[in-house]
Amino acid sequence: MTRTEAIKDFFKKAVLPVAIAGLLYCIFKSACMRDGELDLLWLWILCGLPFGIHRMCVWIVPGGGSLGGAAALFVLNFVIGGLIGGFVLVWRLLVAAWYVPLTIYRLIVG
Fold first, then answer.
1. Phi, psi of 104 (to 5 degrees)
2. pTM of this structure
3. What phi and psi values does residue 57 have, to the nearest 5 degrees?
4. How far apart are CA 29 and CA 19, in angstroms?
5. Smallest Cα–Cα separation from 44: which of 79, 95, 91, 96?
6. By Cβ atoms counted within 10 A, which residue in 22, 34, 64, 81 is the most buried?
7. How many angstroms from the chain centroid is the CA of residue 70?
């Protein structure tokens, strides 16, 4: 692996997910404040939403129900997608932490 490939891989696998997670945290932190305390569950769901909504396999399609039932299922889909995305986000951050020493090793050896 060349140095250029190692640096490109580092930015794609480490810098970009950390930057996106930091940006999402800054955006949603004020929305998750309740009584002066940070609601970590809603922060988890909102920050994980961009990472998990397209990975979700439980899109519940309402059929023959009312508008209220369809809206409730739509919101449930987003909550489940946010929870799944929270785990994906944590996984991406763990991979980013792993890529720091790996890239240093690749740059020294390669």
1. -60, -45
2. 0.80
3. -110, 10
4. 15
5. 79
6. 81
7. 26
Burial of 90 (0-12, 13-18, 19+ CB in 10 A): middle
Rounded CA separation 33/53 (Å):
23
Tally of residues, the chain: 110
* E strands in 11-104: 33-34, 37-38
Tally of CB atoms within 10 A around 28: 16
Distance CA 88, CA 54 (A): 11
Percentages helix, strand, coil for the chain (3-state, rounded to 5) are: 75, 5, 20
* Maximum Cα interatomic distance, the chain, rounded to a whole number of Å: 63
- pLDDT tens, per residue, the chain with 110 residues: 788 888 999 999 999 999 999 999 999 999 999 898 999 999 999 998 888 877 665 566 666 677 777 778 778 888 888 888 899 999 999 999 999 999 999 889 87
